[in-house]
Amino acid sequence: xxxxxxxxxxxxxxxRTSTNPLAFRYYDPEQVVGGKTMEEHLRFSMAYWHxxxxxxxxxxxxxxxVRPWDNLSDPMDIAKAKxxxxxxxxxxxxxxxxxxxxxxxxxxxxxxxxxxNNLDEIVAIFKELMAQTGIKLLWGTSNLFSxxxxxxxxxxxxxxxxxxxxxxxxxxxxELTKELGGENYVxxxxxxxxxxxxxxxxxxxxxxxxxxxxMSKEYAKEIDFNGQFLIEPKPKEPTxxxxxxxxxxxxxxxxxxxxxxxxxxxxxxxxxxxxxxTFQHELRLARVNGILGSVDANQGDELLGxxxxxxxxxxxxxxxAMYEILLNGGLTPGGLNFDAKVRRGSHEAIDLxxxxxxxxxxxAQGLVIAQRMIxxxxxxKFVDERYKSYTTGIGxxxxxxxxxxxxxxEYAMENDQITNSSGRQEYLEAVLNRYLLES
Length: 439
Ligand code: XLS
Ligand code: CA
Ligand code: CA
Prior knowledge:
Bound molecules: D-xylose, calcium ion
Mean pLDDT: 98
Strand order of the largest sheet: 5-6-7-8-10-12-13-14
């Protein structure tokens, strides 16, 4: 069998003193942290679109990447080579899951029929390779945004033919996800948004988006696909305003259309920051509402205003993300999907390895730090103490819903000399640094 990455052997854990750039220094799949192995906690996944499809193209230039299938020209030959290369890569990287869009894995050809046949052929290869390697599918999805037919959206397009076409694509992608034992199915809103309200019927578009999601859930039930359904928020790009702006917006949308029991959320770090939130904020909001489903693990650039999809290397952020994930009781059946691409200048195939190693080590470190924070209970103790006025007296009556404005007014008349405690933000930031630096 062809070897696509001969320059790399299996990437192994060598510990923090190792200087081998093709080894893990923190990610040891077997290391037990808080009762579970790192592999069980982290559930890493490779994103097919970036790692196999991305070629470094940007607004100012064509692809720069050098890849082992560059000598091939037939689109199906390329798709097959990428399938084998993907599994070689994941095996060598010890990445147990992958995610894909339909268009990532097979050429679209000239018709829907041809596309679906191509997909079936590649999925058969995936099935074989999954059985051989034990690698699993975290989630599947359909790309309803790249082709010009989606210029006005998919389920929110003003053109009903596009709505129908999109439904056919999701139906097929869901069937393939089920066939491969996929544990989740993702809906990212692609071009589901608008450029100008001057040409937009917002009410109908939102209703249609909800209809589309409802139909998808109904079809999943019909074919007995039990994967978790996830909506992935993003505030902008490609449209000026995306309907799935952030976690709060999606929560409101799901609630107002009665879909809240059927969908959880896939949170991408870079989308959080584009929405003007921290990654931790989005994770926290989803967690406290019981809808944290999965994570697209990447990072943006603070100085750039777009979706740079960089590999996550900021340990401050991975530690706080893992803190939320641990408090959520983990992500299963979700995982940490590296929706991240190497920079245009990192054009060699070996950069894909360096990048994933950096991301996996950053999350492994984040996990260890977060577990230590939780074990000590130092932060939770501080927070409990800060809210203790709600555990007795008038506070207790408030949370027990025993008082209204009248009773509270009577209470306040007698208790209007108020003392507050310090929020101690800087003190707490130093506590956090202690955990970060001492791990
Ligand atoms: C794009 C999104 C996309 C989704 C899957 O910004 O991150 O890649 O994760 O369609
Ligand atoms: Ca994503
Ligand atoms: Ca992104």
